[in-house]
Amino acid sequence: MCLGVPAQIKEIVDMDNQMAMVDLSGVSRAVNIACVLSDTNSAETLIGQWVLVHVGFALSVVDEEEAYKTLKILDEIGELYATMEDLKQGEK
Amino acid sequence: MKYVDEFRDPKQAKKILLEIDKLCTEIVLPEDRPIQIMEVCGGHTHSIFRYGLNQLLPKKLEFVHGPGCPVCVLPRSVVDNCIRIAENEDVIFTTFGDAMRVPGSEKSLLDLKADGRDIRMVYSPLDAMTIAQNNPDKRVVFFGLGFETTMPSTALSIMQAKKLGVDNFYLFCNHITIIPTIKAVLDSPGMRIDGFLGPGHVSLIIGTKPYHFIADEYQKPLVAAGFEPLDILQSVWMILKQLKNGEAKVENQYKRLVNDNGNASALSPIAEVFELREFFEWRGLGSINHSGVKINDKYRQYDAEAVFKLKEVTVTDPDVCQCGEVLKGVLKPWQCKVFGKECTPEIPLGALMVSTEGACSAHYSYGQNIDLINQKL
């Protein structure tokens, strides 16, 4: 019930009722976009964006830059480990 | 799948696990007790078991499964009230799939469906509203449950019904709120939680600011976390770093979807349609003040509670069930007397065995995967 899926907004199909078509892993589905419309996100700017879809509603726009930053941190956690290993190897 | 696969890389997981191992050895707790992290949300419980993360983490670190599975915390009498509504000849009763098999005192919604009543599983509350539009001679009731994550969807569906003049659509509202719930857990006697994995999708609605009391008043770290394996591991790593440094802060690992202030466009329909309840009865936790919402006066005509004669909700579980103790983290799922014997996902006695997000069901279904996961890493 708490799990949502990232999907890409393809087209606005019914602005009156705030409905858009999304591509959800190759499946097209109509979702309500009321929760992702805001001063900074008009219906037009939403097209092509990735959103989290939950029970037929887009709940939040995926921030691509933040996603990239998180992945970079994950990389760095690994790098730190690799550096520590190198240091250990050097000590021997 | 974009934004999913990147967060499932086993190589990365292996590296973080080593960092987590190291941190665990550096954190010393009194009486040599394990480090306990509560994942509040059932979605996290499901992911932890699905990917076997509990088996990969050091023995010194334990997950305590929190009360964040909306199906699991429903008292049986709520299911009885669903059945009371659905037994009406002119009613089409609609619900998310998770709630179909939750046992009431005598039967579940699935049993009632087998008896021939019109009960339909829907993917979205909007689908339930469409069923109402297509069946004007029936009363269509949607069983609304879940934390703040599902509230905007339900509220917007009610607003849509009003806009389109659909007057045969009703909501049986059992939505619950996360903050009083976490507070009730923190105030439970005997609780020894060292840190919290914050519910990611609730946070994208309410933001991270409401959690600050957990750090400020209870001195516990909380990290709002995503649901992929690397999200969870990174969040655990962030909590451990705080514990090691003697800090208690609210942090956000799930920044790609969650911001500090939440989502105003999702909060506004919640405020439009709902008001706080005085109290809400929980399975395993009892009555918690202001932990649920109901439909406000403006939208009263859509309120199933006002339309159907319902009984007062009381919390009674089968005597043999120990769901309450498991919910509070006092017992592990497999320590319950009926776990895997009289109570299985096929024939659940207690609610924790019903939903795939319930601690017992997740443990029963995924607890045996360890060899497979070890091969993969």
TrEMBL record, chain A:
A GO molecular function held by the record: iron ion binding
Pfam families assigned to the protein according to its UniProt record, in alphabetical order: HupF_HypC
Family: Belongs to the HupF/HypC family.
Name assigned to this protein: Hydrogenase assembly chaperone hypC/hupF
Biological process (GO), any one: protein maturation
Organism of derivation: Bathymodiolus thermophilus thioautotrophic gill symbiont
Top-level taxon of origin: Bacteria
From TrEMBL, chain B:
UniProt keyword list: Iron, Metal-binding
Keyword presence, Metal-binding: yes
GO BP term, pick one: protein maturation
Entry protein name: Hydrogenase maturation factor
Family, per entry: Belongs to the HypD family.
Keyword Iron tagged: yes
GO terms of molecular function: 4 iron, 4 sulfur cluster binding; carbon monoxide binding; iron ion binding
Organism: Bathymodiolus thermophilus thioautotrophic gill symbiont
Any Pfam family hit: HypD
